[in-house]
Amino acid sequence: MPKREYYDAVVIGAGPNGLAAAITLGRRFNAVLLLEAAKTIGGGVRSAALTLPGFVHDVCSTVQPLSLASPFFRQLDLPQYGLEWIQPEIPLAHPFEDGSALFLHRSLEVTADAMGKDGKAYKGLLQPFVDHEKPLLADILKPLHFPENPLLMARFAFHALRSLRNLSETQFQSDRTRALFAGLAAHAMIPLEQTATAAFGVILATLAHTVGWPIIKSGSQKLADALADCFLNGGGEMITGQHIASVTDLPKAASYFFDVTPRQLININGLGLSDGYCKRLARFRYGPGVYKMDWALKEPIPWKADICKKAGTVHLGSSLEEIAASIRDVHMGNVSPSPYVILAQQSLFDPSRAPAGRHTAWAYCHVPHGSAADVSSLIEKKIERYAPGFREVILAKSVLSAAAMEQYNPNYVGGDINGGLQNLSQLYTRPIISLNPYRTSAKNIYLCSSSTPPGGGVHGLCGYYAAKSICKNKSYIKSDSRCYPRGWVSRYRHIIERDDP
Ligand SMILES: Cc1cc2nc3c(=O)[nH]c(=O)nc-3n(C[C@H](O)[C@H](O)[C@H](O)COP(=O)(O)OP(=O)(O)OC[C@H]3O[C@@H](n4cnc5c(N)ncnc54)[C@H](O)[C@@H]3O)c2cc1C
To answer: What does pTM read for this prediction?
Structure first.
């Protein structure tokens, strides 16, 4: 039961964006309530014993470069709430069937040296972004705006707005380097021939050489727990097991922030959204789903390529053609016979994930939207190509089809893990084209999920910017435990802007 009759703000959904919105609102208002449908908080950053006792698995996100790079999380000092990022020795390995592998090392030089004839081109492409990682991310991980670093952004756009295929085929000579880059861009879950797919490759490679691709000690849940502690420490209130289906489920408040996707928002009764706005939200497009697997292993995965044994993340797809075909199949509504697989092996770097000597592995591949197909044997067959004997080290496994993913978390509509398709036309104009994409047609209702800019991933910035947007039209701001009426807002603008990341 809520403790108060009236709140300054209520946030619905305790995913990373809901938690970020709640923390930001809690800094400005006295009474902020966070409501979560599930029994546990975290949304896409939960961990659970999915297989056997003593094994900790990340149900959704596990590789957390965006959380470490997030300008908002950076200002929260999360380690004081018990959060510890662990850096695998090698952020990413990309093996081939002959037992060789390319990899992303933390060092750009070491990575480029291992690429042979493509090393110079790779270094030339990445160096300017690696050198200016913070200003680059500050401009990219924001709602649409005039860039603060126009020259850097122009350089980024020159490469990023191309399709991955175009960038790879013009920059790199080797099929292996092209496969590595295709694997990075495939995280976008859109066909690699589409405009701007190169952006995902460039950003993920830049992150590997700057903040790394860390995992979180003892599981991603620790990030949700740290964010929740930060919110509660600031005087916030939180209730779990409270699914919101109608305004009648909500306590009275000056404003409401929904960490849900457009389709869910439309289905909540009594919000007072205009018909026109609902029609525009209904046109929001969702992407393909994922099929997720977790394993408890009796020993590490027996990779042919030794470098894979030092990597936190391993991408499985032998060529740009194979990876591109897998994504194309899924977009045409078919299960790929040879899916591109993203795999993480946390326990190699974090012994707290499994009993002594045992190990965990986590993987997913893309499948058609809403698919209930069981592709576990295809994923395991793919791993066997690069790690013969993998099946023999399995003690237990857990699977989640795309359809089951939506049952687990209603934000993963059809198994789409990004809160909606992230193609060029929907990346910054999500959920609709608007000067303030977080505001809805109802005055006091806001969206703050990954269906708003800057989109999917664990960075909390959708929640942060949604909460910040309220300053433009709210009656009160909080400072030094006091509230000031609207007329004071301009005088106290420096307080509002003080924590701008
Ligand atoms: C398998 C998988 C792997 C992923 N891997 C990574 C990764 O490695 N790195 C990365 O950065 N990102 C990854 N992601 C994506 C990342 O998890 C999401 O982008 C992120 O969690 C989105 O945050 P959010 O707060 O917008 O939504 P969510 O995390 O989905 O949280 C939404 C919350 O709202 C609650 N909710 C929904 N409806 C209601 C309601 N009506 N009433 C009350 N509560 C409600 C839900 O229960 C949920 O807790 C992955 C996702 C999945 C599924």
So the answer is: 0.94
